[in-house]
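Hi there, hope your week has been kind to you so far. Would you mind checking whether the tokens look sensible for this chain? I owe you a coffee for this, so here goes:
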Amino acid sequence: MSRRIALAALLVLLFIFLSGLTSFGLTGPDEPRYASIGRAMATSGDWVTPRLWGQGWFEKPPLLYWMMAAGFRLGLGEEAAPRLPVALASLAFLGFYFLYVRREFNAFVGATAAGLLATSALWMGYSHAAVTDIPLSITFAAACLLLLPVVEGRTAPVSVSAAAALLALSVLAKGLVPVVLLLPFAWFARRTWRGWLRPLPVVVFCAIALPWYAICQVLNPQFFGVFFIQHQLGRFTSPDLQHVQPLWFYVPVMVLALFPGTLLGSFAFWPRLYQDRRRKFLGVTILFGFLFLSVARNKLPGYILPLLPLVCVLAACGVDAARTLRPRRLTAMLSASALLLPLFVAAAGVLPRALNGGLREAFPLDPITVGRLWIAAPICLIAAACPLFLSSGKALVLWFALAASGWIYVEYAALPWVDAASARSLWRDLPEPKRSFCVGAVSRNWRYGLNYYSVQPLPDCGAETAPAILPGWSASDRPAVAVEGH
């Protein structure tokens, strides 16, 4: 029975993670910008210097660009080339995550942790996006997990070398941030430092992480100042990058990140968990990373994603303990979690407008979404009653099935509307010759998106050009785009 459930879960995850990748155009400022750099690498054959439309772009290291460039070399298409490598990497990590957590703890913890992570909103969303957060998160989290035997005092030279390789890849994904986030390991393994701080792991880390940085600096003398000073240090201290958020920003982000498993995630705070040294290491790493990212002036939701797999491990350990020590509490949490599932319907209605105009522009809900909420409510009430009559294991399987169904619904209901308000849709709507158009005063989201689909950046419109809304575009739910023929 368990093998059939595992196979069914695998097929469902493959469908959810892979089916919607090309159903909507690249969105936001980052996806089209990073994809343009990856495409340029594939076209030029220069795999060292990231270039955005011919100019050096040193905001991020190259791991994501290399993944995208490989996709373009394989001819995967405008959306699949940048997104499919990220989705496949996420799925591969989930497989490793389940198997390794099962080995370190038990099968129930492995399955619960993998289910919580795979269905969490932040992981699901970023696994569909061509940005750096998933490559960083999977390499950092895998390195943390591989170091658990060392934290517990077991000799594991192979695990240490593998963790060093993964940490090096995470440095190629996002710079020095993963090294800082892993600092608690040095404290927990301080008594056995001769066992893990050996020449081989150091050589492995340096051989993977350092060559690109050295070569890029030699070829581009401005690289060090732009990358390390302006972007690495600047994101922590400077307001110039325009992502300044309050100190408490990541508290609601973490609550939403775990949706629909937010209530189950509360089991990560069970004090009994921290009698185990491995779980104590994970808890301190989460707390340290949370505080470090909160103190930084610039904050984005994706910055906290590397901590999410560690939170899900602790939550799964808490759920496992609750099965025997607090079964009624677990049943109550599962029932209450089922009551959150109508939020999938609300999310499908909010998502398209939120991506374009921000969350404030997404409300009030449209009448169709409100009607669907009334339909979903009685279904979720029935689902909330089921844990009262099922064992905890079967109730969890039912809950994960409902969560997966919710994400399938979001893909079906929301992504076509996201595409309708994307730069891809706008570009396809332009009459031929498309290259005869210019772009007026638009946000950088639209600028980068249009430039990605036009391959060569479109020229700016002159001052005398008036903004125009193209046919088929409603000013009530889509931004006015200044695009004119010239």
About this structure: The first strand starts at residue 51 and ends at 52. The longest helix spans residues 392-420.
